[in-house]
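Fill-in record for Succinate dehydrogenase cytochrome b556 subunit.
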Amino acid sequence: MADVNRGNRPLSPHISIYRPQWTSMTSILTRITGNALMLASVLIVWWFLAASYGEDYFNTANGFVTSWFGDLIMFGSLWAVWYHFLAGLRHLYWDSGRGFELDVAKKLAYGVVIGSFVLTIITAVIL
């Protein structure tokens, strides 16, 4: 028999009662950084192609890449590289069948986020 109250039940998880976890947010952020890295790579390829087309074209591309906005994009890309790398290491650890306990998974998520910021700062200072 059909359930007559089907339309009265709330959706699950409802947006007003669902509290995002660190593991779900880091998973979403991994996907976002992967796509952002693809866009940043297009900018870098444009810069290299401009170098092969001639001095005028290269000066235009180089002016954009070395501007404050280009520097911001490159710094964000540096963070995205470190974040994506550490998230990949976390997934390799999970592929071994370990780290699925809630407290361990939360610590790994903290480690990925904090580690990516620390490694970005270290890399920016050194380079």
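KEY FINDING: The domain at 21-126 is CATH 1.20.1300.10 (3 helical TM bundles of succinate and fumarate reductases).
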